[in-house]
Amino acid sequence: TGMTSEYQKPLPNFTHTLYPTSSTDRNTCAICLVDITERTDTRILARCNHQFHITCIDTWCKVYMKMICPYCRSHIPH
């Protein structure tokens, strides 16, 4: 279960802190569409800076076997 270390390595863990923003999409996981609340453990993608719940992005990469951002489709480097 879980992603292989090859897929997990480029996806660092990040504890989300809420900042004032006019954009609501920064605080919503684009995979499950559930709010990313303060102190939620997430992964942030280095190339595009999109954030997702850890279980959501890990499952996404494992199921689709592609290292692409589900929000903007940019490549996630290995």
TrEMBL record:
InterPro entries: Znf_RING, Znf_RING/FYVE/PHD. Pfam families: zf-RING_2 (PF13639). PROSITE patterns: ZF_RING_2. Gene3D superfamilies: Zinc/RING finger domain, C3HC4 (zinc finger) (3.30.40.10). Keywords: Metal-binding, Zinc, Zinc-finger. The keyword Iron-sulfur does not apply. Residues 29-73 form the RING-type domain. The keyword Zinc-finger applies. One of its GO terms (molecular function) is zinc ion binding. It comes from the Eukaryota. This is RING-type domain-containing protein.
